[in-house]
Amino acid sequence: MTPLNPASGASLGHDGISRRRLLGTAGAAGATGLVLGAAGGAAAYAVAEESPTALATVGSTGIAFHDRPHQAGITEPQQAHGHLVAFDLAPGAGRKEAAALMRRWSALAADLMAGRPAGDGDTGVALDAGPSSLTVTFGFGRSFFDRTSLVAQRPPGLDPLPAFSSDHLDAGRSDGDLWVQIGANDALVAFHALRAIQKAGGAAARVRWQMNGFNRSPGATAQPMTARNLMGQVDGTGNPKPSEPDFEQRLFVPSGSDHPWLDGGSYAVVRRIRMLLDDWEKLPLHQQERVIGRRKSDGAPLTGGTETTELALDETGPDGKLVVPENAHARISAPEQNGGAAMLRRPFSFHDGFAPDGTPDAGLLFICWQADPLRGFVPVQRKLDRGDALSAFIRHEASGLFAVPAAPKKGEYVGQRLLET
Question: What Rg do the C-alpha atoms of the chain give, in angstroms?
């Protein structure tokens, strides 16, 4: 990540007063400087994994909205707080209204991500806070193209996902015309963005569903490390890395596709996965590790090494049995077991309270990114659905699939190449 250049027009003082005037003065934030991921999401992802973040610097980091290869919120490190919200276009709203909405939302997101207020009607929720690594990411669902009379522009990657035996899907909390992902390292900054986006929907769009999530805060560990989920497992070890030669190819739609408006974009699969924590927590540690195929303490394979050591899938123990069981989650989901299929997982945990009997409504807001969900998410989920030991401890309760265009250039809005064709 590189320091923000005030001359670029993206500094906090441009086009409005900063939410955090202290950014230009002495102190932890001023000493650190505003940080920008404009050099490209992959670079930001790689650097952020290597450099620890002190809690005092959390508010000072900002991420560019415009003039980057891909929308923010895909390759950046996971933020501590997140909101996912889907909208349906209002009855009677079509392509014209959708274009005006995306123009309005894009301008708003650019201001919020730069730490500026949300216009004259700003609620003041995030006053005194810096950008806090805020990202606002926009995507289009399959139904969006029907509503805007753009069916001919709908890519095949938005074909409906197949049904899986572990699905217990709530239609009211699935799909949607439009999808917005909001992430930040400060809870008030994240909520401020959510409220501003919802208000700016105006008469053009209404909320279909909304979900809240969280992750470990930056600086909470002695050194950067892969996050844990609510089962206590290190989650995300097998993610594609920017250093891999096919990283971009796996995640982003290549230029020259049949739908140029999506060139450089990606697909997000969103799943609300409830974890049956009462059942999981009854398992002894060694059984939990066999279900996953990795040590709980550090995420290393049961075959030894560190978190990043490749699984020795053929290794057997003294009893002649595979050390990583045939139905272990790590084995079944490994790219080498799925013809190289891979996706970038960037989830949030959630907890929405307790049932009368004390059962927690908690789990994972699973978000994965890929250039083609039919070659990324679908084949992996099919194999997991057929024999994953973890399936007995989770329930897929909501699902969505969205096409996410590339980032707009300065002065443009997300989806402009689609809506103005």
Answer: 21
CA 67, CA 356: separation in Å to the nearest integer? 50
> Do residue 97 and residue 123 come from a single domain?
yes
CA–CA separation, 278 vs 283, rounded Å?
A: 9
Beta bridge partners of 211: 84
Q: 10 Å Cβ neighbour count for 313?
A: 18
77 and 145 housed in the same domain? yes
The range of the structural domain enclosing residue 393 comes to: 275-400
Q: Pick from 88, 59, 68, 80: which is nearest to 171 by CA?
A: 88
- Tell whether 187 and 320 lie within a shared domain: no
Of the candidates 235, 278, 298, 372, the residue annotated as catalytic is: 235
CA 295 to chain CA centroid, Å, is 25
- For residue 254, tell me if it sits in a domain: no
The length of the chain, given as a count of residues: 421
Q: What would the pLDDT profile of 198-238 be if each residue is shown by its tens digit?
A: 999 999 999 999 999 999 999 898 888 899 999 999 998 88
pTM of this structure: 0.88
Instruction: Give 3-state DSSP helix, strand, coil % of the chain, rounded to 5.
Output: 30, 20, 50
Catalytic annotation present for 177 = no
CA–CA dist 139, 359 (Å, integer): 33
